[in-house]
Amino acid sequence: MFKKILIANRGEIALRVIRTAREMGIKTVAVYSTADRDSLHVRFADEAVCIGRPQSSESYLNIPNIMAAAEITNADAIHPGYGFLAENAKFARICNEHGVKFIGPTPEMINSMGDKITAKETMIKAGVPVVPGGQGLLQSVDEAKGIARDMGYPVILKATAGGGGKGMRIVWEEAELEKAYDTAKAEALASFKNDGIYMEKFVEEPRHIEIQVAGDQFGNVCHLSERDCSIQRRHQKLVEESPSPFMTEELRYKMGEAAKKAAAAINYESVGTIEFLVDKHRNFYFMEMNTRIQVEHCVTEEVINYDLIKEQILIAAGHRISGKDYYPQMHSIECRINAEDPYNDFRPSPGKITVVHQPGGHGVRVDSHVYAGYVIPPYYDSMIGKLITVAQTRQEAIQTMYRALSEYVIEGVKTTIPFHLQLMQDERFRSGDFNTKFLEGFTLK
Fold first, then answer.
1. b or e along 89-112 (b: 16 or more beta carbons within 10 Å of the residue's beta carbon)?
2. pLDDT digits (tens, 9 = 90+) for 125-157
3. What number does CATH give the domain 207-441?
4. Which of 162, 217, 330, 407 is deepest in the core (most CB within 10 A)?
5. What does the pLDDT look like over 207-235, one tens digit per residue?
6. Quick one: how many helices (H) and strands (E) in the chain?
7. What percent of the chain clears pLDDT 70, i.e. is strictly above it?
8. Options 169, 207, 292, 365, the catalytic residue
9. 4-103 CATH
10. Is position 292 annotated as part of the catalytic site?
C-alpha cells in the first residue's frame, strides 16, 4: 500500500481524498495555489506545498511544479481528483516515468477514451450501442451537409476533444449548418487547441444516464449501477440521483452489461463512468467515458454503501476487485451548491462567505470545503459543495433534500440553493418526468 499520496487538486474533492486516505492510514500532501492558502484541504493534509499563482495554468495545471512537490515530500502516489489533470495522459505518463503511481487508468486508456472519435470506434467494435453518425472527423461543410441529409435533421456537431458543452452545436435544418460548423470549430480550437469536430444524429428528449464501473489490473470488471444526470443547464449537471426514476430492471441489466463491455474493451483499470444518452423509448447510446472519479460519485456510494475513493486507491495499489455487480439498495439525490446567482442567469458570485450553517440529521451528507470567513476565488469552478440525501424511497429522499436545503445557510455570496428548493417542489421533477431539456422551461420564482 502507498505510504503517502499527493492530491493534485483543490476544494471538496481534495478534502474527500484526504479523509479516505487518513482512514486507510496513508499520509497526504496537499498542493495549493496562492489563492487557496486558506482552504481546508491545506489545513487537513499532513503536508502542504504551494505550487504557484492563482491561475490554473500556473498552479493546478503546472505539471513540473506538481512533480517537484511530489519529489520533495517523497509522495509515492498522486490522486488527480476530477477536472484539471485527471484525464491528462501526459501527466499520467510523467508520474509513472518518475516512479510515482498515478491513481487512475494508464495513459493509453486515457487516450483511447479521451478522443471521442477513437472512443466511438472502440465501442462499435465492442458491440456497445452508439449514436448514429458519420464516421471520423468532418473535413468540410459540404461533407457535413451530405451526412446530415443522409441521417436526417436534427443533428449535433461535437468537438472530438470536447466536454462540458464546448464546441457543441445542435442543427435543426440545413440553413443553420454552415454557421454552426464554423462556430463549433472555432470554439473547439479556443477551448481544447483542437478544432476537430464530428457529427451525430441528435437524440430528442434524451435522458443522461451513466453507469459507474470499476476494473482491476487482472482483467476483472464490474458495474455499480446507474446515476441519472439529466437535470442540466448548458450541459452542466446540477442534480444527480441513483437509481434513475426512468430505469427498469431490464434496462439496468442491458446498460450494465454494455458498460462492462466498454470497460473490458480497453482492459480498464480504476473506477470510471460510461455515459449514455437514453431516448424516450429507452434505447440507449454510448456518449463518452470519464476515466476518473466523478463529482457525483457520492450518490453511488450512498445507495450501495461503497467508498469509491478507497476502491480507486486499492486498485492502483494492485488489489483485486470482487468482480460482482452492485445494485441500489436505497435512493440518493445530490444537489450541487454553486456560488452562482440563479436569479441572474446563474452568474458566478465569488467573494467572502460571512455565515455558513450546514444541514445535518439522518440521511444527510455535505461534501464541502468552505467555512465562515472563506473567500471563494474567481479563478476556478463555482461549485462550493455538494448536498446529498439518502432514504428508502425517492419521495423520501426528495423530502429530506427539501428539508436540508431549507436549513442550509450561506451568506455573503449568492448560491444555487433557491433554485434547488424550487426544483424539489416541482411536480414534474417529483414525478420523474424530466429529460436534459427540463430546465429550458423552468422559471425561478
1. bebbbbbeeeebbbbbbbbebbbb
2. 999 999 888 678 999 999 999 999 988 899 999
3. 3.30.470.20
4. 162
5. 999 999 999 999 999 999 999 999 999 88
6. 14, 22
7. 100
8. 292
9. 3.40.50.20
10. yes
